[in-house]
């Protein structure tokens, strides 16, 4: 038993119109194990024509699905939620194999990702418009909500389940159909998810999955098609901009969950031990490969050394290894490029004057590992403070005043997550109002919550996933004017 058997061989294919099928021409590509670079499995490599067939299926299913009673849509999501919960171990092991994270972390993602199905199974029946008297009288104003229509979802490799459920959950609840293109490095979890949704009774064509190595050509073709009404993307800011440009011709609705550069602020009045606990979560969740990962530790100069050494003790005690082995805390990064780019940022920071307190290199041997690393005295203008690290490295830069902390925290084109450790209520309010980020965690290292609106400002994108806001991304408003006299 390797864990791969959780995804049946017939499901390692395209899922179009309720059928599992080969790619046109039978092409396939390999999925690799980041712990040693070996081949785990292969999946169908969709052509542009296959992807257009997936859109045909989504378009064909749209009208009936949009008319399906909300309770029925919600109950399908609820059944899928129960099935996923009962198979959490299988999902977690499969995800760990293709992505590298530990099985324990993967279970956390299954539970977090699955909550979007539960939340939106409950929200499907609360879609509503409003009714009001026109201010001048004489007519009544009615608004009704309608599904946006067929959507394209493009998801990244770092959270193979949750980045899908955050889009699929509200889309199903709202009555939209969809084509999903998962990351080529981690397609297996999404295929397993599609199988569960089919088992839960999702009608054919509502959800279609195309695995492909031709992401650019597929998105270009689908976005050029006037039947596609929305694109929702999670990934890098660079690709996000390409997709926003491509959305212009057909004026598709767009949701963009893009990169981050989260500051983690520790003030002189903070509980330093609690800040270290929070830092371990904000930095080490998903090996640092998260858009919400703390990227820059801005710590008051009076506590910077204490914070740095306590964090280094905790980071240095973590065990690296294959994510499916017991006792392992930190799995491999996704690929060799990731290890190289993390290593380069550390080398540059050291060249700029940073001190390595713990870690600082990639261990010898197979797999794409990088040691948990803490850097002290990192100059504010070092590249590691402006680029997304996407690895287990915590660079610490000291500050002296609150104004300096705010200025440095906001000195980034990104605006996704931020973290603040302080025990001063007035300061907390000043931070909430001054930090230019879509999400602010106060005395916590974890902000993600399916009931909250997840999303960014500036170049971290626009649109929200989760919460009451998340379903609005999939609904259009029609206003009806009714004469009353
Ligand atoms: P990426 O390179 O942008 O890839 C994301 C997805 O886009 C993958 O499915 C990829 O397919 C696809 N893609 C690549 N080129 C494309 C193109 N020209 N047209 C259409 N699709 C294309 O990002 P990544 O490296 O996988 O993910 C890491 C990034 O995602 C980080 O910047 C991270 O911060 C961000 N992220 C953001 C959030 C958020 O909610 N804000 C959450 C998680 C991650 P292939 O796999 O085939 O290349």
Keywords:
alpha/beta; seven-stranded mixed beta sheet; six-stranded mixed beta sheet; 20 strands; binds NADP nicotinamide-adenine-dinucleotide phosphate
Can you characterise this structure?
This protein has 485 residues and is α/β, with parallel strands linked by helices. It contains 14 helices and 20 strands. α2 packs antiparallel against α5 and α4 packs parallel to α5. The strands form five sheets. A seven-stranded mixed sheet has the order 14-15-16-13-12-17-18, with helices on both faces. The protein binds NADP nicotinamide-adenine-dinucleotide phosphate. NADP nicotinamide-adenine-dinucleotide phosphate (NAP) binds next to α7 and α8.
Shape: globular
- Whole-number radius of gyration? 23 Å
Q: Which structural category do the helix and sheet elements fall into?
A: alpha/beta
Strand composition percent: 15-25%
How many angstroms separate the termini? Answer: 73 Å
The total count of helices amounts to: 14
Brief write-up:
The mean pLDDT is 98. The protein is globular and about 70 Å long. The protein has 14 helices and 20 strands.
């Amino acid at each position: 038993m390797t864990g791969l058997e959780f995804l049946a061989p017939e499901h390692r294919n395209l899922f179009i119109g309720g059928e599992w099928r080969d790619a046109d021409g039978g092409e396939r590509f390999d999925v690799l194990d980041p712990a040693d670079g070996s081949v785990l499995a292969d999946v169908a490599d969709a052509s542009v024509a296959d992807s257009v067939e997936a859109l045909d299926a989504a378009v064909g299913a749209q009208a009936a699905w949009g008319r399906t009673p909300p309770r029925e849509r919600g109950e399908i999501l609820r059944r899928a939620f129960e099935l996923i919960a009962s198979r959490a171990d299988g999902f977690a092991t499969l995800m760990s194999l293709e992505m590298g994270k530990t099985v324990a972390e993967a279970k956390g993602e299954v539970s977090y990702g699955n909550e979007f199905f539960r939340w939106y199974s409950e929200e499907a029946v609360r879609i509503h418009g409003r009714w009001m008297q026109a201010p001048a009288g004489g007519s009544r104003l009615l608004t009704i909500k309608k599904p946006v229509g067929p959507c394209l979802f493009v998801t990244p490799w770092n959270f193979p389940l949750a980045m899908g459920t955050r889009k699929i959950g509200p889309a199903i609840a709202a009555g939209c159909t969809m084509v999903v293109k998962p990351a080529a490095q981690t397609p297996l979890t999404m295929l397993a998810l599609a199988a569960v949704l089919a088992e839960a009774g999702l009608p054919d064509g509502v959800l279609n999955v195309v695995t492909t190595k031709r992401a650019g050509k597929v998105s270009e073709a689908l976005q050029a098609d006037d039947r596609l009404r929305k694109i929702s993307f999670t990934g890098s800011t660079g690709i996000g901009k390409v997709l926003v440009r491509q959305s212009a011709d057909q004026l598709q609705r767009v949701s963009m969950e893009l990169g981050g550069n989260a500051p983690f602020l520790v003030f002189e009045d903070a509980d330093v031990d609690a800040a270290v606990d929070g830092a371990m979560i904000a930095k080490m969740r998903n090996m640092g490969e998260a858009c919400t990962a703390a990227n820059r530790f801005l710590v008051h100069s009076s506590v910077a050394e204490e914070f740095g050494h306590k964090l280094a003790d905790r980071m240095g005690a973590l065990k690296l290894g294959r994510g499916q082995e017991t006792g392992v805390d930190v799995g491999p990064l996704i690929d060799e490029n990731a290890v190289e780019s993390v290593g380069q940022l550390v080398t540059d920071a050291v060249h700029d004057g940073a001190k390595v307190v713990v870690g600082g290199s990639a261990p010898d041997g197979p797999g794409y590992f990088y040691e948990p690393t803490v850097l002290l005295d990192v100059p504010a203008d070092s590249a590691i403070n402006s680029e997304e690290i996407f690895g287990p490295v915590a660079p610490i830069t000291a500050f002296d005043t609150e104004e300096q902390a705010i200025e440095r925290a906001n000195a980034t084109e990104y605006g996704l997550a931020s973290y603040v450790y302080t025990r001063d209520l007035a300061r907390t309010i000043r931070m909430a109002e001054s930090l230019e980020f879509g999400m602010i965690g106060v005395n916590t290292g974890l902000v993600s919550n399916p009931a909250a609106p997840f999303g960014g400002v500036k170049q971290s994108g626009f649109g929200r996933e989760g919460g009451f806001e998340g379903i609005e991304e999939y609904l259009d408003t029609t206003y009806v004017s009714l004469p009353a006299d």
